[in-house]
Amino acid sequence: MTTHGGFEPVFCTVVPPHVLHRLARNDDPALSGPARRTLVRDGELRAARSLTTEFRLAAAPTAKAPSDRPLRTVYDAGHGTDLPGAKVRGEGEDPGRDATVNRAYSGLGSTFELFLKAYGRHSIDGDGLPLDATVHYDRDYNNAFWNGEQMVFGDGDGEIFVDFTNSVDVIGHELAHGVTQYTANLTYYGQPGALNESMSDVFGSLIKQYTLGQTAAEADWLIGAGLLAPGVTGQALRSMKAPGTAYDDDVLGKDPQPATMDDYVRTGRDNGGVHINSGIPNHAFYLAATALGGFAWEKAGQIWYDVLTGGELRERAFFTDFAGLTVKAARERFGDGGEELLAVEKAWERVGVRIL
């Protein structure tokens, strides 16, 4: 396990702050109220995570899962905020009546299986870390998050967002933040933060594709499809295929993600635009994966995984650093002159990222 001097867990949410800030300014209290409460709650959780990290207050897990099976536990917060909540389903137990619990349990398993079967990784830390999730967190909570130790899902407000367990790629996205935490530990700001977010989108999408048995051509390449309420004009939170097109709604506004460096967004908000500029490396992965065809986790996914876990990716890596390492990884795994190397090089060229 490579942690570059010790991992630093961060608080990572799937709904970007800029989306919640826009909702919080809406004149309709049914829309602004839940968004404001979610922002306040997220701020408290982010501060708590920072304190825990600084003073190393978090207890290390005492149990490890068998190498070839996950060790899952799902808890119910009962619309409160105390974590983890009441245990409602443990590993190997039969499904219950609560579909949210069952989806969370299944999503944890799908994530474990993709990393084990495709990359030989035993849970998100590579050493059998138990996978815990809490559902029904708070009231009208418009987010899901990884807090450095576990997954947490809100039920949404029913007006803009619905149950956050609806999308297996969202479950995979948040757990992939844990993989990054235990490997490259990418700094959560600016370009390295956008790479952090992109890695989660990449593996979240691969987990969905693996679960559905989809090829790169068959996949929708959407992150968070199924999260938007019926009245919202949009498909998902983000599109790796066409960044900037996931939603265009009177309330939510227009998806701000760029697809290329020509439209790179310079901002101090959202940790330097980590959820916005992640569209650029996302699109590069989509281009490489679809150029190679077949199952995306086998070639493009393997190259990205090699870079994330290989020990050479710096915590403060820029897009150019990451691109260069993917070229190196493609060459080392698949050889010079192959379609894999060419696909990766062309993908970065098309999004305007130079290869160092």
- Beta strands, count: 10
Count of alpha/pi helices: 10
Summing up helix and strand content along with how strands pair, one would put the structural category as alpha+beta
| Span between termini | 26 Å
Overall description:
This protein is 42% helix and 9% strand. The protein has 356 residues and is of the alpha+beta class. Strands 1-5-6-4-2-3 form a 6-stranded mixed beta sheet, covered by helices on one side. Strands 7-8 form a two-stranded antiparallel ribbon. A hairpin with a 3-residue loop joins strand 9 and strand 10. Helix 3 (99-119) crosses helix 4 (168-182) and helix 8 (300-309) crosses helix 9. The radius of gyration is 19 Å and the shape is globular. It starts with 11 loop residues before the first strand and ends in a 6-residue tail after the last helix. Mean pLDDT is 92; it is low at 1-8 and 51-61.
Task: Give the helix/strand layout.
Blueprint: E1 12-13, H1 17-24, H2 29-55, E2 72-76, E3 86-90, H3 99-119, E4 131-135, E5 144-146, E6 151-153, H4 168-182, H5 190-212, E7 222-223, E8 238-239, E9 248-249, E10 253-254, H6 270-273, H7 279-292, H8 300-309, H9 319-334, H10 339-350
Parallel strand pairs: 2-4, 4-6
Antiparallel strand pairs: 1-5, 2-3, 5-6, 7-8, 9-10
Structure at a glance:
By secondary structure, the chain is an alpha+beta fold. The chain is built from 10 helices and 10 strands.
Task: Give short descriptive properties of this protein.
356 residues, alpha+beta, 9% strand
